[in-house]
Amino acid sequence: MSTHPDVGAIDVSEADCCASQDCIDAPAKLSLACDQPNALGLLVAGQAMRVSANLLDQPGGPSSSCAIEGGRSQVAFRFQVDAPSRLDFEIVHAAELDLVMELREHRCDEAAGALFCTDAEDQVYFAEAGKDYFLIVESRDGQSPGPFELRVSARGALCAPAGQWSCEATSRVQCFGGQEQRSFQCATSCTGDSCAGDSCENAIEVTSSTSFSGQSAAYTSAFDFSDKPGCTSSGISGLTTLGQDLVFFLPGLLAGQKLFVDALTNDTNDNLIAVLDTCSAQAGCVAAASIGNQLRWQVERGGDYYVIIDKTTSTARDFHYRIEIDP
């Protein structure tokens, strides 16, 4: 574990972690591991907390997942946050100590499913309101207990939970890291948390020649045409397509009509274009183009069809597609 050099027994009164924040000192009296975790209370955005402790002669508990040996030399802290928050944890200790910290949720004495475990001296986590969290500080090798200072600061999250998607107008928006909202343009519209064309259930209906533009990062991957019959330009089994895909629904095509799909013009992605007569990730292809990013196909049998434009690899690039249906 990396450490601050020349840090001996730590005096809370000399700590400078709170120079720019409202800061409170946690209760100095510590209890023993998970049988009675130390209550840090409710952490409020803009607040920092610091507490000194000593692993010497402390009993243990369920071993942290990144400790070499567990079951001894642990101190546990319990807290909640008042609102979705970014938490910055830091441990300051003497150079000879080798400590880890692990964050658990709901129960202190259950190490399985830990939210994180690290031997780094600092760690960031985005916490949700209304949950009990338990931070375990433990001697990594079971042989090097000693004094340390725990510093915790809270900042209100701009969005929550981290990683969640939502819609804003015609864009799909991701809560990135709790501190940033990243917006990606859909081809046509966005509803709930997904763009139109992201799946069979919300395929984009096309009844006349139309162009579509957007950002690939707004979409997910529902199709992989590897080993699907007819899904290459040569008609054999298809390519592996693990990137994002767009789904278009072409109802009521007539026998003899000509279809042209252009995923090449003004586009730098490598795509497979597939025509299906049923929208299923398991279906084979009626027609396909795996090279050239363009497909020309004449309808042999009238009916409803789906066009899937699927990227071979995941990308964040913009896309520009055109579908032409000759009358």
Q: What's the N-to-C terminus distance?
A: 69 Å
Q: Major β-sheet, in short?
A: 5 strands, mixed
Taking Cα atoms only, what radius of gyration do you get, to the nearest Å? 28 Å
Trace the largest sheet across and list its strands.
Answer: 1-3-10-5-8
What does this structure look like?
There is one protein chain. The chain is mainly β. The chain folds into two domains: 12-156, Sandwich (Jelly Rolls); 198-325, Sandwich (Jelly Rolls), CATH 2.60.120.380. 0% of the residues lie in helices and 43% in strands. It is built from no helices and 24 strands. The chain has strands at 22-25, 38-43, 47-54, 74-81, 85-93, 99-105, 116-118, 122-127, 133-139, 147-156, 165-168, 171-176, 180-185, 190-191, 194-195, 204-205, 210-215, 245-253, 258-262, 271-276, 287-289, 294-298, 303-311, 318-325. The strands form six sheets. Strands 1-3-10-5-8 form a five-stranded mixed β-sheet, with no helix packed on it. A five-stranded mixed β-sheet has the order 2-4-9-6-7, with no helix packed on it. A five-stranded mixed β-sheet has the order 16-18-23-20-21, with no helix packed on it. The N and C termini lie far apart (69 Å). The model is unreliable at 1-17 and 27-32 (pLDDT under 50).
